[in-house]
Amino acid sequence: MYELNICHLYPDLLNLYGDRGNIIAIARRSQWRGIKVNISDISIGDKFDAEKYDIIFLGGGQDFEQEVIQDDVLNKKGNEIRNAIENDKIFLAICGGYQLLGNYYKTWDGKEIEFLRALDLWTIGSKKRMIGNFCFECDFLKTDSFDGRVVGFENHSGRTYLGPSVRPLGKIVKGYGNNGEDGFEGAIYKNVYCSYSHGSLLPKNPHLTDYLITLALKQKYKDFDSLEKLNDEFEELARKTMIQRIVG
Ligand code: GLN
């Protein structure tokens, strides 16, 4: 029997707009296929051993929460996180968690918060928040029967810019994404997937959920080939309705 170990980092502090729903989506879609899932919550003061997990999740948090965890994440868990990323561990990071993996965050009121420097990206806050439902297109999800379009909800003041080693997660169809300027959303570096999409991202986008589950199972089990298909009629109707409303 296949088994996945998922870690939610700082679940009590990084969990904006129900970001935990991403873990629930990974767990349910795995369990529906007979895959066993264990979820561990690791927060401030807890020992973090990345080796134990197949997928590590960081949700969103406001500037305040990001400051609260700064000491623990930089000084206690930083090396472990950076090493895990360099060793191809799978991460999903949303909004505040995404920003945290980068170099720094300059808040809209001029505070500079040093971050993990695990991914070469940086974030500059602006007074105008970027809020709303949005839609972006991921080339790596496109198939003959799937358009690669992902829907979500964003709410951030930070504008994120990617360095040369990091590529965007997708191209904006409608909305702001990373910075409202360059037309890109999110980031990919090795097996780290980052997005500004809350709401939550994965329950609304089963293709992306299955992509991450497949990645994790392939990494863990040499004999794993592909996931059994599920009946996603309802999810597809929801996603298409959202696209219709957002894009028109
Ligand atoms: N504090 C960050 C910002 O406003 C992240 C917010 C969030 O996670 N929604 O840019």
UniProtKB/TrEMBL annotation:
Ranges for domain CobB/CobQ-like glutamine amidotransferase: 5-205
Signal peptide range in chain numbering: none
Family note: Belongs to the CobB/CobQ family. GatD subfamily.
Binding of substrate, residues: R129
Gene Ontology biological process terms in this record: cell wall organization; cobalamin biosynthetic process; peptidoglycan biosynthetic process; regulation of cell shape
Name the UniProt record assigns to this protein: Lipid II isoglutaminyl synthase (glutamine-hydrolyzing) subunit GatD
Keyword Plastid attached: no
Species: Acetivibrio clariflavus (strain DSM 19732 / NBRC 101661 / EBR45) (Clostridium clariflavum)
